[in-house]
Specification:
Elements: H1 2-15, E1 18-20, H2 24-31, E2 34-37, H3 39-43, E3 49-55, H4 68-75, H5 82-95, E4 106-111, E5 115-120, E6 123-128, H6 130-135, H7 142-153, E7 157-163, E8 166-174, H8 180-190, E9 194-198, H9 203-213, E10 217-219, H10 224-236, E11 241-246, H11 251-256, E12 259-263, E13 280-282, H12 287-304
Helix pairs in contact: 1-12, 2-12, 4-5, 8-12
Bound molecules: adenosine-5'-diphosphate (ADP) and magnesium ion.
Length: 305
């Protein structure tokens, strides 16, 4: 019966950490025709691995040269970003298992969608994307540009490190697609929703993830303000847009969306923070939860009507 269907749906969504925040969301969910999703931690697992580290030796004195991984690891200690967590994990593996072994960073600033900056042991350290380096006035040798292009064409995520204003190295990371993503996309497609991958990561990494799960449209290299602009453009074309993303990093795009499906920050207590007032929050943040939430809205309305 009706009650059983609703209960089953509610129980399933609760188990998956899906929260539908208010009744208006049900209607909004059935109207969307486009779903814009972020890559890292949504389509992919977000459990990134540091696969290679290339250090540019400058100044000649190798003993005096501060270790790239140690400085980058220290700077990323407080980062929630999958890239930061992968760098910290690799640094801890190399320099000791507890974070006490990494120096304490000072004046740390997270630049969402760009990177992180701060001071470590008297050195000014910057870790982030190419665009961030350029914005910070760091010059890149041509050979490095070629290497980045090569790694990115293979689907890797690349991050640059600058120490005291000079380019110092490249970190290469990999991520894997979540198995449930393909299934989730099938669900969304069946509901008549067109998927679009929108990421701050590079084109190569984005295309690789998109191809693995069957997403045809990719917008890569987009900083947070470009993510919002894309949502606005789609809306101006008359589309009803759902955004699936991180409540912190993708906050602006979520606020702009016709339906916001946000991955909340779950501090462990099972209560999911919702800093953007998302209509739907999902604790796990995978695509499957998001697709199930939309499906649940469809089913609920059909049942109630
Ligand atoms: P996505 O859209 O895939 O979630 P983000 O917008 O979170 O990507 O990040 C875009 C890019 O900004 C990353 O690919 C990386 O180059 C850079 N970046 C963001 N946060 C960090 C960080 N903590 N450390 C290093 N690089 C970062
Ligand atoms: Mg992100």
């Amino acid at each position: 019966g009706v009650a059983t269907a609703l209960l089953a749906g509610a129980r399933r969504s609760a188990q998956q950490g899906i929260r539908i925040r208010h009744p208006a969301v049900l209607t909004a969910a059935t109207r969307i025709d486009t779903v814009v999703m972020s890559k890292t931690g949504t389509v992919t697992t977000g459990h990134m691995q540091l696969t290679a580290l290339l250090s540019a030796r400058h100044g000649g004195d190798q003993d005096a040269e501060p270790s790239l991984l140690r400085l980058a690891g220290s700077l990323e200690t407080g980062s929630e970003h999958p890239i930061g967590r992968a760098i910290v994990a690799a640094a801890q593996e190399a320099f000791g298992s507890h974070s006490g072994r990494l120096p304490q960073p000072q004046n740390v600033r997270q630049h969402h969608g760009m990177g992180v900056s701060g001071d470590v042991e008297g050195h000014r350290v910057i870790v982030g994307r190419q665009r961030f380096m350029t914005a910070c006035g760091v010059d890149l040798p041509d050979a490095v540009r070629d290497l980045l292009t090569e790694a990115q064409n293979h689907g890797s995520t690349t991050v640059l490190v600058a120490i005291d204003g000079a380019f110092s190295g490249v970190l290469i990371l990999s991520d894997t697609v979540q198995e449930s993503s393909t299934e989730a996309l099938e669900v969304l497609t069946r509901l008549g929703v067109e998927p679009l991958l929108l990421t701050g990561d590079n084109e190569g990494a984005a295309r690789r993830a998109a191809a693995a799960v069957g997403i045809g449209t990719v917008v890569a290299d987009a900083p947070p303000q470009e993510k919002v602009a894309l949502v606005k453009t789609l809306q101006a074309q008359g589309r009803a847009v759902a955004v699936i993303g991180d409540c912190v990093e993708d906050a602006a795009a979520l606020v702009q969306a016709d339906l916001a499906i946000g991955r909340g920050v779950d501090p462990g207590g099972g209560t999911t923070a919702d800093p953007v007032g998302a209509g739907i929050t999902v604790a796990r943040g995978d695509l499957r939860s998001a697709a199930d939430a939309v499906l649940l809205c469809h089913r609920t309305l059909r049942t109630v009507r």
